[in-house]
Amino acid sequence: MSRRTLRFERTGVLVGALVLVLLPSVAQAHTGSIGGFWAGFLHPLGGIDHVLAMLAVGIWGAQLGPPALWILPVAFPMVMALGGVAGIIGLPVPWVELGIAMSVIVLGSMIALDQRPPLWVAALLVAFFAIFHGYAHGLELPGQVGAVEYSAGFVLSTGLIHLTGILIGFVIKLPSGLHILRAGGTVIVIIGLYLAASLLLA
Amino acid sequence: MRAGGLACVAGLAAALCLVPTVAFAHGTLAAGDFYAGVLQPVTHPESLLVVLALALLAGQQPEPNLPSLLGAILVATLLGSALAATRVALPSLPWVARAGALIAGILVAARWAPHWIALVVFAAIVAASHGYSATFGELEEIERPLLYVPGLVAGVLLILGNVVSLMLRFDAFWTQVAYRIVGSWIATITLLVSALELRGPS
């Protein structure tokens, strides 16, 4: 095939593709489900306190190393769902917002002070705070969207924040990585203190 | 084919694109009840959760045990689906399937296998209740349940086969951790969906 013919055919394909754009067609496949999924996906990203706490779980997991590295992110969403159920069905849980701010302070402190407690203590601590996060999310979960799509988006988003935290935590493998992580933990603690102070002074 | 002929075909295709038609994805084209059954676990996210949980659970078991476990799941799906096709109303069975997905997700996350017989019985109960709910909910839509039921079994088989093959092929440590994380997500989503459904629209 000559180069001239090849160029001619490529032009034909390009023109054909451009012509497709002119089609006055209606394309509406599964828009409702995607909407529910995205609403759920964006929900955990809406609050800096939630995002920081979940990032801290991932970073602390990476700091502790295996098996905490993956046990904490596995435990957090499951316990968070229990808190979510309590919020959805309206069970009273006191001091939720303060609990969330405390989770940012405590988890940030663990990173900043390079605390490495036994695995069960770390899991219990993370699970305790997961209840508050789950409860707050559960209260806000809407009932009118597709439950599965919304929940899938919500859980996936949470998992990706944990994964981001784990990836940040791998900084520890660098020569000064531990210092960088501890500095990051200190920043998280300061933000947590600000959030707690805002709540107490409000 | 000569270059001129190719250009003609391309031109004809481009001309066809100019026809102003409306594009309805999954519109009036009826693909048949068998295919509706095959697609059911894919097009219904809640159904997919149950099948995925069972597939992950099966993929974590020792290879020699797989044929009997997969066989039990498929036979149970067939029986549950056939029972629904007789229009016997058992309103609690969808909740059994949901609870089964939750337990299976937790078992996958914990990578804990109960006694072999107990596992087969558990998987069969979950599969049967899934087969029932996946069929009973569609009875208004399908014309020939005798085609839909084997279609559903084929759809379940496709997902089971693909997931289990994937897990046998990729069994490195980190991929096993990934499967456990997916298991925890399935449990979390199922828990949230159950709570949202219990609460109803808000």
Description:
The complex is a heterodimer of chains A (202) and B (202). Chain A is 78% helix and 0% strand. Chain A has 202 residues and is mainly alpha-helical. Chain A is globular, with a radius of gyration of 23 Å. The model of chain A is unreliable at 19-32 (pLDDT under 50). Chain A has one domain (44-201). Chain B is an all-alpha fold. Chain B has eight helices and no strands. Chain B is globular and about 70 Å long. At the A-B interface, helix 1, helix 4 and helix 7 of A face helix 1, helix 3 and helix 8 of B.
Helix content class of chain B? over 70%
Provide the domain count of chain A: 1
Instruction: Report on the biggest sheet of chain B.
Output: none
User: In what range is the share of β-strand residues of chain A?
Assistant: under 5%
The termini of chain A sit apart by: 76 Å
Kindly report the greatest chain-chain contact and the residue count on each side: A-B, 50 and 41 residues
Flag low-confidence runs of chain B. none
Assign a percent range to the helix content of chain A.
over 70%
Number of strands of chain B: 0
Shape of chain A: globular
Number of self-contained structural domains of chain B: 1
Write down the secondary-structure element order of chain A.
HHHHHHHH
Mean pLDDT of chain B: 86
Termini separation of chain B comes to 63 Å
* Principal-axis shape of chain B: globular
Quaternary structure type:
heterodimer
Quickly give the structural class of chain A.
Answer: mainly alpha
Name the helix and strand elements of chain B from N-terminus to C-terminus, one letter apiece. HHHHHHHH
Rounded radius of gyration of chain B (Å): 21 Å
In short:
The complex is a heterodimer of chains A (202) and B (202). Chain A has 202 residues and is mainly α.
Comma- or semicolon-separated keywords:
heterodimer; A: 202 residues; mainly alpha; 8 helices; 78% helix; B: 202 residues; globular
